[in-house]
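User: We ran a pulldown and think these components assemble together. Before we commit to crystallization trials, I'd like a predicted model of the whole complex to look at. Sequences follow.
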Amino acid sequence: EPEVTQTPSHQVTQMGQEVILRCVPISNHLYFYWYRQILGQKVEFLVSFYNNEISEKSEIFDDQFSVERPDGSNFTLKIRSTKLEDSAMYFCASTPGAREREQFFGPGTRLTVL
Amino acid sequence: QKEVEQNSGPLSVPEGAIASLNCTYSDRGSQSFFWYRQYSGKSPELIMFIYSNGDKEDGRFTAQLNKASQYVSLLIRDSQPSDSATYLCAVNGDYKLSFGAGTTVTVRA
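Assistant: Here's a predicted model for the assembly, 223 residues in total across the polymer chains.
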């Protein structure tokens, strides 16, 4: 069964450094998303992406964040200058066809900012 | 701000019993509703989705939707220890899912 994959599974970085989190959505899916979950808190939406552009973004997704689909398979989230409060699990998700359909989540990347 | 509220839990049920989880949402225009299961340290795993008013059954799981009351529920029948997890209610609208805080279920053997 096709799955969303994410790399790395765990990323440790120093405050102020740039990180890139990578995702490979399910191959025939059209909508892509990033969510994050701070330890003990709810899953929060960051950004959605369709047809090579951002469809919607949350207040969390400020100028320090960017997304890109550099080729036909990868979908990346870049954090330009990490802060301590960026420490969280970051989940990529994708949806087939219509945006109202169910979203399938990858295993996540645990980001630790020191 | 679209809010999704879940009964706070934790919910402890004996093996073989029914676990009942509730969720309310604030956006009356929401059209699709999802239940995800999340084990500790893992990602959300889709277990049910429902788009129309009424009940939808899938194995031991039944989702119920009442759009007039803005209410979604999940029943887990014949609960098993492997059902012990946090259950997340999610509501779709405008290119994103809004999640509730989750209800943690523990099934006692």
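Chain B touches chain A through 23 residues (CB under 8 Å). That may be worth checking against your pulldown data before setting up trials.

User: Thanks, that helps.
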